[in-house]
Amino acid sequence: MKVAKQVANEPSLEFRINRLEVKRSALAIVNRAASPEYRVDLSNMDLTVDNLSNQRLQGTSVARLKGRFMDSGEAQATMTLRPRTGGADMELSARIEERRHGTHERSRAQLWRRQCGCR
Questions:
Q1: Please, are residues 62 and 50 in contact by the beta-carbon 8 Å criterion?
Q2: Quick check: helix, strand or coil at residue 97?
Q3: Which of 79, 75, 22 is nearest to 48 (CA)?
Q4: Are 28 and 68 in contact (CB under 8 A)?
Q5: Is-contact 66 74, C-beta < 8 A?
Q6: Confidence of residue 30 (pLDDT cuts 50, 70, 90)
Q7: Whole-model pTM?
Q8: Strands 73-84 and 16-31
Q9: What pLDDT is attached to residue 112?
């Protein structure tokens, strides 16, 4: 992230990806610094990123993600990113639809909400 901040909107360096697609993939995040430690995963993931650049003049980047969160429900997220000198402006919206309602699934959802500060 430190390098990304240094090159954001830097006129002497241009980075650009018109479109990036990742299909039928998996992503896992482990937080060993948390107490208790936790792992969250997304399976059957599709990710599309359009217009990714470090130059503000190139416009807004949009990322869309879909998959199955912790094998308990569908997850979707959309992020918009616009470079600015020294960083970026970002908006993120995410939604997880829980489909199972057993104790184990509820505890995972509660853990995720507590860790991300979500309701």
A1: yes
A2: strand
A3: 22
A4: no
A5: yes
A6: very high
A7: 0.72
A8: unpaired
A9: 60
The whole-number average pLDDT for the span 13-18 is 88
Best CA proximity match to 62, nearest among 91, 26, 85: 91
The partner residues of 102 in beta bridges, in order of sequence, read none
CA-only gyration radius of the chain, Å: 17
Residue length, the chain?
119
The ranges assigned to domains in the chain are 2-116
The DSSP line for 24-86 is EEEEEEEESSSSS-EEEEEEEEEEEEEEEES-GGG--EEEEEEEEETTTEEEEEEEEEEEETT
pLDDT value at 9 more than 70: yes
According to the model, what pLDDT value does residue 84 have?
81
C-alpha 41/C-alpha 28 separation (Å) is 4
